[in-house]
Design a protein that fits this description.
about 200 residues; alpha+beta; globular
Length: about 200
């Protein structure tokens, strides 16, 4: 009887191992297919429409909403501060609770590709941007010497985040997508499209 149970256990372990292997192979194939699609989509990535979604001012004392709902603005603020916390932590900068004053304009850039959920590149313009935290401000100003930075905020849903300066405006882009990161040429294209959208919006 004991040998019988041992055989059952060995059989179940073997089945589980095979199932995991099959799932791993399937995931690798899906990832490879998505990578191929990503590069093809990147070559044809274009703007279909630009829609202003939110406008508000945030300071330590109050939040003033010009466009959108107060509850949604508060969620957006937490999302942005969480993203800042993530990139600071990834750069080994210790800022426990980033606090910042800023005016925000948020707009959706609708694209022609399924590369992103709902075809959207979500653009946040934080201008002006200030903070009493010197480490945070030093990091933010250091971005002026770079084309952009890209990172992955720690969230339940996968996002790729980009930060850069555009004509003295601090820009954050959050792109919900199906993978953790894109190749460098795809990142370049996404930032290029976002800058094109900014030019159209502010011209």
């Amino acid at each position: 009887m004991k040998r019988y149970y041992i055989c059952i256990v060995i059989f179940l372990v073997s089945v589980c191992g095979i199932a995991q292997t099959v799932d791993s192979i399937r995931n690798i194939r899906e990832f490879d297919e998505f990578e191929k699609y990503t590069h093809l989509a990147k070559d044809s990535l274009a703007i279909q429409n630009i829609v202003e979604h939110q406008k508000f001012r945030y300071s330590a004392r109050h939040l003033t909403v010009e466009k959108g709902e107060k509850g949604e603005a508060e969620v957006t603020h937490r999302l942005l501060m969480w993203s800042l916390s993530s990139v600071l932590w990834q750069n080994k900068i210790s800022v426990r609770n980033p606090q910042a004053d800023y005016c925000l304009t948020n707009f959706y850039v609708y694209t022609n590709t399924e590369l992103f959920f709902d075809h959207i590149i979500n653009v946040y313009v934080l201008s002006p941007f200030s903070s009493v935290n010197k480490s945070l401000m030093k990091f933010v100003h250091s971005l002026k010497d770079k084309d952009y930075i890209v990172f992955n905020p720690i969230m339940k849903m996968s996002h790729v985040c980009y930060m850069f300066w555009y004509e003295e405006k601090l820009i954050m882009i959050l792109v919900p997508c199906r993978i953790i990161s894109f190749a460098k040429d795809v990142d370049d294209k996404i930032v290029e499209v976002a800058k094109e959208a900014l030019e159209r919006y502010y011209k």
